[in-house]
Design a protein that fits this description.
The complex is a heterodimer of chains A (220) and B (361). Chain A is an all-alpha fold. Helix content of chain A is 77%, strand content 0%. The longest helix of chain A is centred in the first third of the chain and has 31 residues. Chain A has 11 helices and no strands. In chain A, α1 packs parallel to α5. Chain B is an alpha+beta fold. In chain B, 25% of the residues lie in helices and 37% in strands. Chain B has 9 helices and 21 strands. In chain B, α2 packs parallel to α4, α3 crosses α4 and α4 packs parallel to α5. Classes of the chains: A mainly alpha (220), B alpha+beta (361). The interface between A and B is medium-sized, with 19 and 26 residues.
Chain lengths: 220, 361
């Protein structure tokens, strides 16, 4: 029961990080560059999972996506499928709790890029998208990379929202933190220790490797 | 031809500090926009480039309308084809010199892009810098790369915002020549913003003096600098001697009007003003000759006796302050000061041609 949990954890955290990176960078860009009056409200809503207990976030997700949920009922009506207690639910839970970290990091990183570089790019005839991809993003890469690492770490350690939305089904939704929890309450100390050590080891390795990769060749 | 006629209130700390009310045309040459710091020069460039939106008015380059408040036209800056060189150059720090330049090249194929970038590198004689990053370059090199990048995008107009303010004096004149030669070869009209009069005179085919939010005078740089038409312009162009006085007498047959400066008298070219009229006289510090002896056989109409009050030395020139009842500033070379043995307290005579004195209306 060690390998399936580890594999599932890495898979869920990786997919969640991918989703969070795309959505987080896009949201961070909009929050950094656009002015509209609901801006700070939207920022607050996306920050909420950072403050709320993950169990509450998970409960909200059930209210939203459950079989009788706000959106979930229509999905169920149309497809006869519901997300709760599936491994997709684990991905959604991990994504939602990791997203605030990504949005915050991306917004700060994009805001820290001197707008003059973007203006120069515009005067050179480049569109906003070209400018974002070739100037803003590379110049903001350190902050964005930090956001991605944090998001991955947060997704890997996700427990509360996953338990509420995805349950604790070994081989299907039982990620490492859930497996550790189960080992502890059923008194399997050795298994708990091995699992905890592996999770710690994987986390340290990920952060170490990413740090190494992200060390820039040039200092800006 | 660039044609600008706009109004814009510039805010500072939430309040409108200056109202720009600008109207000028710039032709296929180098036009200098000259004015003190904070006079709104950069804002005018920003309005032309489309970085700042005017409150009202019209800006056009040839047939292309950049901005027109009555017809609600505001061309996005991406479509204006302006080559902009910022004061700090703003080279992309994560790209090499060659990448910075080829970034601006707007052609379809990679090969054509590479060829154009190489062409521009050699035009600016910076092939040896191609692989370097901006932080590895000197100020002068960065300036050339910034100009090269601006030109790479095939602009319809070049806008340079005090491009030499971060460059050491020795490199400055060399770069000025280079900007002129690049402009002549490319034929792209160029607007050059500066508050340095030497740069303005050297580079400008035409000059616009900006003061209090409007163009106070325009014309050929030397003419404008030598004969400012108003006290305001004299202050802006840095006429060193601005003296207040009253009309004392006229000698129309000699072509002379004498001005009483309260302390000494000055002969200036004849101007039919009622006696007693208060006037302001401007004299450039370069136009005054210093002599240790009292010369009588001289064409200079004014020979004023005075004493050296102080000697001001800075990197660009040496200036003498001479008290003759009123203080005159005289620009001299360090060699002349040494040869004449000038030091504070010494008696000297100032020779000033009447023609060197002009009345500021």
């Amino acid at each position: 029961m060690i390998w399936p949990a580890l594999k599932l954890s890495l898979l869920v955290a990786s997919i969640a990080t991918l989703i969070v990176s795309v959505i987080g960078i896009a949201l961070g860009f909009i929050l950094a560059k656009r002015d509209f009056h609901t801006k700070e409200l939207i920022d607050s809503i996306f920050t909420l999972p950072l403050i709320l207990p993950p169990t509450v976030t998970g409960y909200y997700l059930i209210l939203l996506l459950g079989r009788r949920g706000l959106i979930g009922q229509y999905i169920y009506e149309l497809t006869g499928w519901t997300v709760t207690f599936t491994c997709q639910a684990a991905v959604i839970a991990a994504s939602v709790v990791a997203l605030p970290l990504m949005v915050k990091s991306a917004r700060a990183a994009i805001e820290s890029v001197d707008p003059k570089y973007e203006i120069v790019s515009y005067t050179l005839g480049k569109s906003e998208l070209q400018t974002f991809l070739r100037i803003t993003l590379p110049l903001a890469r350190r902050g964005i990379l930090a956001g991605i690492i944090l998001s991955f770490a947060r997704a890997l350690g996700e427990f509360g929202a996953t338990l509420v939305l995805a349950g604790n089904i070994p081989g299907k939704t039982q990620t490492m933190p859930l497996a550790i929890y189960e080992a502890v309450i059923s008194g399997e100390d050795v298994r708990a220790q091995i699992l905890a050590l592996i999770l710690t080891g994987v986390s340290v390795a990920v952060i170490y490797i990413t740090n190494k990769l992200s060390r820039p060749k040039i200092n800006i | 031809m660039l044609s600008v006629k706009t109004k814009k209130g510039i805010k500072s700390n939430g309040r409108i500090a200056i109202v720009l009310d600008i109207e000028f045309n710039a032709h296929k040459e180098i036009t200098v926009l000259f004015g003190p710091s904070g006079s709104g020069k950069t804002t005018i460039l920003y309005m032309i480039a489309g970085i700042v939106t005017p409150d009202e008015g019209k800006i056009s380059l040839g047939k292309q309308i950049y901005f027109d408040s009555t017809n609600r036209i505001n061309l996005p800056l991406q479509n204006r084809r302006v080559g902009f060189v910022f004061q700090d150059y703003s080279l992309f720090p994560h790209l090499t010199v060659e990448q910075n330049i080829s970034y601006g090249v707007n052609v379809n194929t990679d090969r054509a892009k590479c060829r154009k970038a190489r062409e521009i590198l050699s035009l600016f004689r910076i092939e040896h810098l191609a692989g370097q990053y901006p932080r590895e370059l000197s100020g002068g090199e960065q300036q050339r790369v910034a100009l090269a990048r601006a030109l790479a995008s095939d602009p319809a107009i070049l806008l340079l915002d005090e491009p030499l303010s971060a460059v050491d004096i020795a490199t400055r004149s060399y770069l000025l020549e280079e900007i002129i030669s690049i402009q002549r070869r490319s034929g792209v009209p160029l607007i050059y913003v500066t508050h340095n009069s030497a740069e303005a005179v050297r580079i400008g085919d035409y000059i616009l003096i900006l003061s209090n939010g409007r163009i106070a005078q325009e014309g050929k740089p030397l003419e404008v600098f030598n004969t400012p038409q108003s006290l305001e312009v004299a202050r802006v162009v840095g006429t060193e001697n601005i003296l207040m006085g009253r009309v004392l007498e006229h000698r129309a047959s000699e072509g002379i009007t004498t001005i009483d400066l309260k302390g000494c008298q000055l002969m200036v070219p004849y101007k039919a003003l009622p006696l007693g009229t208060q006037v302001t006289v401007g004299i450039n510090s370069e136009d005054i000759i210093v002599s240790r002896e009292h010369l009588t056989q001289t064409s200079a109409r004014n020979v004023l006796e005075g004493r050296v009050k102080s000697i001001i030395r800075d990197t660009e020139k040496t200036e003498l302050v001479v008290g003759c009842g009123v203080d005159f500033k005289v620009s001299l070379t360090a060699g002349a000061i040494e040869t004449l043995g000038l030091q504070p307290g010494i008696q000297v005579y100032l020779l000033i041609k009447a023609r060197a004195c002009y009345l500021l209306s």
